[in-house]
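Hi R.,

Here's the chain you asked about this morning:
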Amino acid sequence: MMHELIELSVMPTALDFFDTYWNQRPFVVKAGIAEDSIDELITPNELASLAMEEDAISRLVKSPDGDQGWTCRYGPFDEKDLSEMGNQGWNLLVGNVEQFHPDTAKLLNFFNFAPRWMMDDVMVSYSSMGGTVGPHMDSYHVFLVQGEGKRRWKVSHHTIGCEDYIENIDLKVMKTDFAGDEVEMNVGDVLYIPPNFAHHGITLEPALTYSVGFLGPKSSELFSAFGDYLACNEDLDERYVGGQLTQQDQGFHMGSSAVNSVGDFLSKTQGSTTFTRWLVEFFTDPTHQEFAQFIVRDDAFDLTTLKIKLQTGYALVKPEYVKLAVVDGGNGKIYIGFEHHSFVIDVGSMTVLHAIMNGQTVSAAEFPELFKNQKLLGTIVELYNHSALEFF
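And the predicted structure, written out as tokens:
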């Protein structure tokens, strides 16, 4: 089905986003994010400095020029690498910028209408005049937020089924052009591109682009990770005993009853509280292992210290880059996932939990019921001690 690029006046509501756009069609919001918010994000000089760090994931991409074809080099870089790039036709891309630059992590709050538990990272690119990474497709959802400068984007009218890329380069650049709509992106404009919609950006004047990616796992990753979880929790790892088998499954024959029996066994496991609890842990496991942070902080404290802090006027807040996943487990239980660990609270704690997830401050003055809920306080202690919450 062909979809023209639709222009919205404001960011969509969650209902409109999932009903109309998610996995279905791209859209652009002109001036979707105010300039004063864009001004807080990482600058070109800061991005260049970050690309020189060992822990940063960075690339330099240069488009074809004369006899020189596409080139892609990986960081870390030094000042000489960047100064030699010239004034045209190149891009510096750095991933996971929200982990390094707290103000850039604030950008994530503009996308709470999307599934934040699927958020992968904020990749930032600085591109010179004419800079591009070529026409390509992604297997994930991306919101492209325009910072300083201007870029022109072309977005396909529909998903592209056949991936035909140029050979022998360390980039996925499509061999042929595609039919689509063009849009010029200025400061604060936001472009949503669903998976497998081809897109091609060209820089009209030196520009910063902030790419907020939402990446789902492959089925093999889900099966493998759940299997590993069960293997590490032997008491949860039930054995298949051949329930529902019949005489057609004798000898070396696996009849339809055997196939259904194994399928039912797996379905039962996936419908269990074990699966639900694993799920919130899996989707908050850092996508890039070098950023795993689930270690006890130096200033860890106990429940008594937390109460004293709250009673003396301190408040708690979740840093923007921290990703949580929350599932209603039934029977009044709520599972919270953070970096491959999970916690259990009761449904009555949801008011406080919603405030935490929405980036609001949590204090004794605002939530006096905190002191009546020991389980929630215990969870807050664990989240603070593992850097998912901060005092101020």
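The longest helix spans residues 256-270.

Let me know if you need anything else.
M.
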